[in-house]
Amino acid sequence: MTKYVYRFGGGANDGGAGNKNLLGGKGANLDGMASIGLPVPPGFTISTEMCTRYYQDGEVFPDSLKAEVADGLAHIEGVTGKKFGDAADPLLVSVRSGARVSMPGMMDTVLNLGLNDATVQGLAQVSGDERFAWDSYRRFVQMYSDVVLGLDHDAFEEALEIMKEDNGFFSDTEMEAKHWKALVGEYKTLVEDQWGKPFPQDVHDQLWGAISAVFGSWQSERAKVYRRLNDIPAEWGTAVNVQAMVFGNMGDTSATGVAFTRNPATGENVYYGEFLINAQGEDVVAGIRTPQYLTKAAREEANAKPLSMEEAMPETYAELARVFDILETHYRDMQDIEFTVERGKLWMLQTRSGKRTAKAALRIAVEMASEGLITEEEAIARVDPMALDQLLHPSLDPSATRDVLTKGLPASPGAASGIIVFDADTAERRNEMGDAVILVRIETSPEDIHGMHAARGILTARGGMTSHAAVVARGMGRPCVSGAGSLSIDNKERVLRIGKRELREGDTITIDGTSGEVMLGEVPTVQPELVGDFGVLMGWADKVRRLKVRTNAETPEDCRVARDFGAEGIGLCRTEHMFFEASRITSVRQMILAEDEAGRRAALEKLLPEQRGDFHSIFEVMAGLPVTIRLLDPPLHEFLPHSESEFAEVAEAAGVGVEVLKRRANELHEFNPMLGHRGCRLGVTYPEIYEMQARAIFEAACDVAEKSGAAPIPEVMIPLVATKRELELMKKVVDTAAELVFAEKGRRIEYLVGTMIELPRAALMADEIAEVGEFFSFGTNDLTQTTLGVSRDDAGRFLTQYVDKGIFARDPFVSLDVEGVGQLIEIAVEKGRKTRDGIKLGICGEHGGDPASIAFCEQAGLDYVSASPYRVPIARLAAAQAALKKG
Ligand code: PEP
Ligand code: MG
């Protein structure tokens, strides 16, 4: 027969300590604390397995549970010397939920259970405190009616308020025994009116009612929502903890409190917490009375009058501090604790690993490793790589008030305030005038790059987490909120409407790319500090990781940021972004719109020195490191002129008529450009473009090698390859350009020619492709798009629903679809290596900065991941964790 009840405290040893899956976090740690000799009121835990069975059986308990619960009660009675339901000296218990992971406030609790019209008298007698007894009884009736009977909570609150008013009282503390007693009478009438039956007087009925209610709260709506948001499986279930009550409300030598063994906001190694004298646990959280500080130092720092626990109860405080140290040593982590002092005696009611900010997580991990409490490897594993994001960007001052207008996707972390502008040119102009601007667009396109660069932050109405705006913003380290569907942007009128509110160009807003919130006005921010603990932990991570970490960057500034963050090369330099700069866009347009090769070559000639300059400055920053440069990739129509003046400008440069250009632009129109004339298809049809780019790369590399002595290692990357023949043709173009340049310069540079794997066919044919390609870089943005047949630019509209309905566990553009897309990567890795032993393998899609995807890359045996500059530290830590996990 399955055992469901596990006793703790009073020397019981049912083996529950530490078994969180079976007993939930609270139950496992109560037993844990009791077994290391800490003062824990005796009790028992009904396991999570019972919760599962309860629902399987149609919300009934098996008969066997009755006997087990009776044994559990007998255990508590034995240790306390009190009897449950005894009118002379009653045992009271708490009934509390407790799942494997903490779900704060999501499930139910009943305190003071076991009180009825008879036992309340006994409690008054034994405690010698009639007021306390009736106060406890009224609390119990109120809580039980709410949690177990499901009655209207407000009616009870109202009755209390009226009682206070009638007596001219301001606070609960003024109520005397007779008032509480009268209130209990009113509560009982309320119960009978609403429930149709008198309040249950049988203490065993009370107990079973509470046990059912706590198990029942596992399936409450709010618990379900919380589970969904936090990826907690429904089958885990909750445990139920029944424990002898101890009372913090037995006068001025009693108290109750909540504490952390270290500061959860900063990580500082100081005790941190609050307590209330003469109060019960829920009073601290409920905010009815203002709690007092735990330590004298904290009280003094806050300039508060009411004495700290350290001052008011020095002996008990010393005992508590001793317990804190024991708990931290035992659990080897910062603990979040609930305690009660009953007439001077300390009791521990809960301990668990405390939630903390990223800053605190870092400091605690590093300090605990330095203290020898945990190993460096454990410290690495303790910090959530994504939480580092909070540290790398300025963030909103948590204490600031905010007027939230709407919410979109948290596309690029960090916060920014500025005036609204609706186009890139205005963004640039206002920025030059010294204004902080937020670029607000329906969606962005490569043409907006200069405006995005000039803006402090970017807000779009459309687009997902890998939309253009999101990718570029992350690359630049600009905060971005994308896909804020409730925005209506009127570019003509230059107004932004959000529901009934209207904002005009020049109005100030704040965006938080970490939460997706858009706020009115300027919300103050705080700057990150990347020294100290951050550097120490990163150093430890670098020692254990196998994967190299590169960056996706295309400007010298981004390259510098990435190098400062520890990037070991460039994994993807997207050359198209360079084509949009004001000085060259006209030449680019001239090239695209040319009718023949001679026309294109004329334009390319103008572009060559510009491109060479681009690569020169990047190579200088990345001297000695590998730099993967991708030749032109996007559909040409993205570069087309729009306005009459733009057409006129190109016409003049090319020496042709505007009408000719317009006809040519029309010819370039594509219905499905992402699957159209882009990637290496451009190089196949217009090899002179790639030829110019290759020449620019090698000329710049030779120049930098000559100047600095540290040659860069160019890795020329051909995009969107599906067949070996495509790559063969393109490699020939690159190799020929290289040989010409080397002959002209009289020096050779080491280089590689490889391909992106971003089409399923390329993955499947990787053995053939590797006969030509010297490296592979997985372009998982396109590979996801082409494998799933889902547009990366439009998917935001339905992907949230797909995640909500469990079709995808996470947005596949954010976290790699390991089963599907991952399989293609595995096939390509295996086939590529079969042909070319030691072929260099990396990933440069957005997934290269996602910890779960990085774990997959470690498993798949890639050589490096490439992430946007601000994700480089995240990738370093995630790579270390992945290596440790693999062992
Ligand atoms: C990719 O497709 O994964 C990739 C890195 O290229 P881009 O995002 O520029 O299409
Ligand atoms: Mg791509």
UniProtKB/TrEMBL annotation:
The keyword Membrane does not apply. It is an enzyme of class 2 (transferase). Its cofactor is Mg(2+). It catalyses: pyruvate + phosphate + ATP = phosphoenolpyruvate + AMP + diphosphate + H(+). Residues 21-60, 65-370 form the Pyruvate phosphate dikinase AMP/ATP-binding domain. The active site is at H468, C844. Pfam families: PEP-utilizers (PF00391), PEP-utilizers_C (PF02896), PPDK_N (PF01326). Keywords: ATP-binding, Kinase, Magnesium, Metal-binding, Nucleotide-binding, Pyruvate, Transferase. The keyword Cell division does not apply. Belongs to the PEP-utilizing enzyme family. This is Pyruvate, phosphate dikinase.
